Amino acid sequence: MTLDELELECKNCRKCPLCEGRTNLVFGTGKKDADIMLIGEGPGENEDLQGQPFVGRSGQLLDKFLASVDLSREKNVYIANMVKCRPPHNRDPKPEEQDICIEWLRQQFKIIRPKIIVCVGRISAQRLISPDFKVTKEHGTFVEKNGVLMMGTYHPAAILRNPNNKELAFQDWLALREKIDELGIDIG
Ligand code: URA
Ligand code: SF4
C-alpha cells in the first residue's frame, strides 16, 4: 500500500462522528518518505476548507519555524494531525475520536517510517508521548519510543495567544535541527 492509496481510502472515512462536519478531510501533506513527521491536533476552519494541514495563521507560523531550521513540507517533512476531520467549533478532539482516527495515523506512520516525530501541541503529545505530558515542562525534550525519537513542542496557536512563548518554541525547533545533525539525517 502506498501513501496515495491510503489517502484515497481515508478520504471516504466515516468511522467517527467528526465526518459529519467536514468540508474536506485533511489527510496530511509533505515528503512521502520524510525522516521527520509532525503531528498536530486536527483541522481548523482553513484546513477544512482547503483539505491541507496547517494552512491558516498557525500554519504560517509553523512554516516559519520550519524554514528557520531548513525544514519544509515541500522538502523534508511530513505533516499530519491526530484527527483528520474538523471538530465542531475547533473544540479538542475527544479521546474516543482520537482512538478511532489513530488507525489512519498508524498506517501513515508505517508507510513513511519517520525517525523523528514532533508532537505539535498538547493533544498529540499526550496521546503519543505520555498521558500527563506538560508542554510547559517537557517541550523540546526527546524521548525514544519503539525506536522512534519523539518530542513535544508548543502549538503555534498557543504562541499566537501568548507570544511570550515564541522564543521557547524556537529553541525546540533548534533542538530538533541539532538532533537531525547529531543522527546524520539527510534533509536534502
Ligand atoms: N492546528 C492543528 O493542530 N492542525 C492543523 O492542521 C491546523 C491547526
Ligand atoms: Fe474517520 Fe478520522 Fe474523520 Fe473520524 S476524524 S471520520 S476516524 S478520518
Task: Explain briefly what this protein structure is.
The chain has 188 residues and is α/β, with parallel strands linked by helices. The chain has eight helices and six strands. Strands 1-3-2-4-6-5 form a six-stranded mixed β-sheet, sandwiched between helices.
Name a few traits of the molecule:
188 residues, alpha/beta, 6-stranded mixed β-sheet, 8 helices, 6 strands, binds uracil
Overview of the structural elements:
The protein is of the alpha/beta class. The chain has helices at 3-10, 45-50, 57-68, 95-112, 122-128, 135-138, 156-161, 166-182; strands spanning 29-30, 36-40, 77-81, 116-120, 142-145, 148-153. A hairpin with a 2-residue loop joins strand 5 (142-145) and strand 6. The radius of gyration is 15 Å and the shape is globular. The chain binds uracil and iron/sulfur cluster. Iron/sulfur cluster (SF4) binds next to helix 4.
